[in-house]
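Study this chain:
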Amino acid sequence: MSAFLIKRIYEKSEAGDGYRMLVDRIWPRGISKEKAKLDEWNKEIAPSADLRKWFNHEPEKFEEFRKRYKEELKEKTDDLHRIKELAKEKQICLLYGAKDEKHNQAIVIKEVLEKL
C-alpha cells in the first residue's frame, strides 16, 4: 500500500484517506471548509501561478508541465521532506480540484515524494 493517495477534493472523504492535504494554490469552487475535511492546505507546494496559467489543464501540455513543475519542486525540498516524514506515520491523501484525474499536480507531487 502506498503512503500516498490522490483524490479530487470533490470526492467524499473516507476514513482510509488518512491525512488530507489540499495541494492547490486556489481554493476549489463550491467546497466549504467543513466539507473539505482538511488536515492541511498546502498552497506553497502547488504550482506557481505562472505555471498553472500556462498549463491551463491542457492534457497535451502535461509532459512539459510535469518537467517544469518538478523543477519548481526542487525549491520546496523542506516541505517535501516534511510530507515524506508525515507519511511514515500515516496515509497521506493529496487532494486537488482539477477535473482531469490523469493530468494534475497531485500526480507529479506523488511521483516526487515516492522518489525521495
Observations:
- The chain is about 40% helix and 15% strand.
- Residues 77-89 form the longest helix (13 residues).
- The helical segments are 33-36, 49-55, 62-73, 77-89, 105-115.
- The two ends are 17 Å apart (CA to CA).
